[in-house]
TrEMBL record:
<keyword id="KW-0547">Nucleotide-binding</keyword>
<comment type="pathway">
    <text>Pyrimidine metabolism; dUMP biosynthesis; dUMP from dCTP: step 1/1.</text>
</comment>
<comment type="subunit">
    <text>Homotrimer.</text>
</comment>
<feature type="binding site">
    <location>
        <position position="156"/>
    </location>
    <ligand>
        <name>dCTP</name>
    </ligand>
</feature>
<feature type="active site" description="Proton donor/acceptor">
    <location>
        <position position="123"/>
    </location>
</feature>
<comment type="function">
    <text>Bifunctional enzyme that catalyzes both the deamination of dCTP to dUTP and the hydrolysis of dUTP to dUMP without releasing the toxic dUTP intermediate.</text>
</comment>
<dbReference type="InterPro" id="IPR033704">
    <property type="entry name" value="dUTPase_trimeric"/>
</dbReference>
<feature type="binding site">
    <location>
        <begin position="121"/>
        <end position="123"/>
    </location>
    <ligand>
        <name>dCTP</name>
    </ligand>
</feature>
<feature type="binding site">
    <location>
        <position position="113"/>
    </location>
    <ligand>
        <name>dCTP</name>
    </ligand>
</feature>
<dbReference type="InterPro" id="IPR011962">
    <property type="entry name" value="dCTP_deaminase"/>
</dbReference>
<feature type="binding site">
    <location>
        <position position="159"/>
    </location>
    <ligand>
        <name>dCTP</name>
    </ligand>
</feature>
<feature type="binding site">
    <location>
        <begin position="96"/>
        <end position="101"/>
    </location>
    <ligand>
        <name>dCTP</name>
    </ligand>
</feature>
<protein>
    <recommendedName>
        <fullName>dCTP deaminase, dUMP-forming</fullName>
        <ecNumber>3.5.4.30</ecNumber>
    </recommendedName>
</protein>
<feature type="binding site">
    <location>
        <position position="142"/>
    </location>
    <ligand>
        <name>dCTP</name>
    </ligand>
</feature>
<comment type="similarity">
    <text>Belongs to the dCTP deaminase family.</text>
</comment>
<dbReference type="GO" id="GO:0008829">
    <property type="term" value="F:dCTP deaminase activity"/>
</dbReference>
<feature type="site" description="Important for bifunctional activity">
    <location>
        <begin position="110"/>
        <end position="111"/>
    </location>
</feature>
């Protein structure tokens, strides 16, 4: 079940769901607006021009209130907000239509697991023919919350728990699943 603004406000007031910083205006009828933080991360070039999923990937991180995203460029960004989800709730990251209509794709690789705590790393891509200026504090998407039928047996305690800033892939830590 998707949570309404009334339920979101109740959970926030009871500290069952935590989001900070949060302005009341961010709470929409069935979502919470998310804003860009000031951290951007890009994959560093390699001598072979090949990213190998089995090894640690090197990144360059930039802190700035503004970032110029060139056409065809991909960057990791972070939310301004820090989230703490209870063990019986999940969330989906959705880009804003107004942003998508400019050719700016805001994506998250899947949903936010129950029990997750941290800033959310966003995958940002400029599909436009023009550069797009990203600015910290700009609303770029929304988080849609859904209630689980019961607490998760294994809430999230993974490699991104507690992350702050635009966090690069840690896929090299996935030793138990080799495909």
């Amino acid at each position: 079940m998707i949570l309404s603004d009334k339920t979101i406000k109740k959970l926030l007031n009871n500290k069952e769901l935590e989001i900070y910083p949060l302005d009341d205006i961010q709470i929409q009828p069935a979502s919470v607006d998310i804003r860009l933080g000031n951290t951007y991360t890009i994959v560093e070039d390699t001598s072979s021009n090949i990213i190998q999923l089995s090894g640690e990937i090197r990144y360059k991180t930039i802190q700035s209130d503004k970032y110029l995203l060139m056409p065809g460029q991909f960057v990791l960004a972070t939310t301004m907000e820090y989230f703490k989800l209870p063990n019986n709730m999940t969330a989906f990251v959705e880009g804003r239509s107004s942003i998508g209509r400019l050719g700016l794709f805001i994506q998250n690789a899947g949903w936010v697991d129950p029990g997750f705590e941290g800033e959310i790393t966003l995958e940002v891509f400029n599909a436009s023919r023009c550069a797009i200026e990203l600015q910290a504090g700009r609303r770029v998407g929304q988080l849609v919350f859904a209630q689980l039928d019961q607490d998760a047996d294994n809430p999230y305690r993974g490699k991104y728990q507690g992350q702050k800033g635009a966090t690069g892939s840690r896929i090299y830590l996935d030793n138990e699943l080799q495909i």
